[in-house]
């Protein structure tokens, strides 16, 4: 049985932060998804910017020596320098953590395959490497996933429906201006989505376009419809035709971290013991968790900053700055003057500087003055609307997508109900 690795999104029980404040009571007792023993674990994600094949393998817990062996073997059939940002790859490990297989989607019709046959007499890894031609079929599908006690995260709820983590990441990217997936999801929430998925030889592969998504979140109905924007590129809009792209994302972190200390003008410092302002929001998260830019901007600094540890400062439009403190590492190539896009990786969660546990201290300045990030985000305006002359076409596309979503979900529900017990 294959399942998804969720290491990057697991909430570490008992995790505390340097802020020393009481953990939000609504989050206490939340459980991570538990998995039964399985034959293999497969992680399916996309290649990040400026990645190397060796770096991907080491990041997925292969030893440097084994990663080097894989890269050397791959060179016979594929130039590792041809790795492309945002292409899908899959890495499979055995129950003992041993390397089993690696697949990378070179393009729409070719797949790089590396499979382990164990080790030779001299202990060297035996690897089968090939470039496989893979005819593909694109299927339109729908999914419905509930946030429950057993599956309290978007990753966990979609995983329970057989979907890969990449779908959760893409939905979070689409809805990230409306919902903080670290704190806003509650039991009883539900997400539905209409999307395309590539199938090769009967095996689901990477996701294609997401045409519609609906999130029921504590009484709110948040709709996302895919439609071409003014620049001719696909974008996402709410039910009224307003852009879902906001100046700022709701959070600089992926799933599962939680707010452990809020904005305060007087708080007892957990290390120094005196009262002083805490001018940001602390997110408890494991070391290495990705930290992304909440908005497009320019890097002001990326350096050691005393008690703040490794810190990144970004300058944005409209007089805003954002600060990211206590990082364990900066993103490769990050430097002052570099322009970064919204959602770009800028660093990793750490425990540097005056910190008692791994966490991110996230701060916002407006015109040189620190402001409460939660309150400031709540005040930001909705996105720009679709032009009036394009509104009828958008409304027609919206109605078609939502109707197809409802129909496919109903068909799926009927099929599940008719399936023999144990085969649903």
Keywords:
disordered N terminus; alpha+beta; 10-stranded antiparallel sheet; 36% strand; Nuclear Transport Factor 2, Chain: A; 5-stranded antiparallel sheet; 424 residues; Glucose Permease (Domain IIA); globular; 3 domains
Describe the structure.
The chain is of the alpha+beta class and 424 residues long. It folds into three domains: 39-134, Nuclear Transport Factor 2, Chain: A, CATH 3.10.450; 137-245 and 387-418, Nuclear Transport Factor 2, Chain: A, CATH 3.10.450.350; 258-379, Distorted Sandwich (Glucose Permease (Domain IIA)). The chain has helices spanning 53-59, 64-74, 154-160, 165-175, 373-379, 391-418, and strands at residues 41-46, 88-93, 99-107, 110-119, 125-133, 136-146, 190-200, 203-217, 220-228, 234-237, 258-261, 264-268, 275-278, 281-284, 290-292, 297-304, 310-315, 320-330, 339-340, 345-349, 359-366, 369-371. α1 (53-59) packs antiparallel against α2 and α3 crosses α4. The longest helix has 28 residues, at 391-418. The protein is globular, with a radius of gyration of 23 Å.
């Amino acid at each position: 049985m294959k399942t998804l690795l969720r290491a990057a999104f697991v909430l570490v029980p008992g995790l505390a932060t340097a802020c020393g404040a009481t953990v939000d009571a609504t989050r206490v007792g939340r459980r991570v998804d538990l998995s039964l023993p399985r034959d293999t674990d497969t992680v399916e994600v996309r290649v990040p910017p400026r990645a190397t094949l060796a770096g991907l393998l080491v990041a997925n817990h292969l030893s440097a020596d084994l990663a080097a062996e894989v890269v050397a073997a791959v060179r016979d059939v594929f130039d590792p320098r041809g790795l492309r940002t945002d292409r899908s790859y899959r890495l499979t490990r055995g129950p003992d953590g041993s390397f089993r297989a690696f697949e990378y989607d070179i393009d729409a019709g070719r797949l790089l395959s590396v499979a382990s046959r164990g080790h030779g007499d001299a202990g060297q890894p035996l690897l089968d490497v090939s470039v496989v031609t893979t005819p593909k079929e694109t299927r339109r599908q729908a999914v419905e996933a509930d946030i429950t006690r057993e599956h309290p995260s978007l990753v966990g709820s979609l995983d329970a429906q057989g979907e890969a983590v990449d779908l959760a990441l893409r939905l979070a990217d689409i809805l990230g201006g409306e919902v903080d997936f670290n704190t806003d999801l509650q039991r009883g929430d539900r997400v539905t989505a209409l999307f395309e998925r590539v199938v090769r030889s009967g095996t689901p592969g990477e996701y294609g376009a997401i045409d519609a998504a609906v999130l029921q979140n504590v009484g709110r109905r948040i709709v996302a419809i895919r439609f071409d924007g003014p620049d001719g590129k696909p974008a996402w809009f709410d039910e009224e035709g307003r852009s879902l792209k906001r100046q700022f994302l709701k959070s600089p972190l992926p799933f599962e971290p939680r707010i452990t200390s809020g904005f305060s003008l007087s708080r007892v410092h957990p290390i120094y013991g005196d009262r002083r302002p805490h001018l940001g929001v602390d997110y408890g998260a494991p070391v290495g968790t990705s930290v992304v830019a909440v908005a497009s901007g320019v890097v002001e600094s990326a350096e050691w900053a005393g008690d703040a540890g490794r810190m990144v400062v970004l300058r944005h439009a409209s007089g805003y700055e954002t600060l990211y403190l206590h990082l364990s590492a900066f993103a490769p190539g990050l430097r002052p003057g570099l322009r970064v896009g919204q959602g770009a990786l800028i660093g990793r969660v750490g425990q540097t500087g005056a910190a008692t546990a791994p966490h991110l201290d996230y701060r916002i300045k407006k015109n040189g003055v620190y402001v409460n990030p939660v309150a400031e985000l709540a005040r930001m305006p909705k996105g720009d609307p679709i032009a009036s002359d394009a509104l009828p076409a958008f409304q027609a596309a919206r109605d078609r997508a939502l109707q197809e979503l409802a129909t496919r979900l109903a068909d799926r529900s009927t099929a599940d109900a008719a399936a023999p017990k144990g085969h649903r």
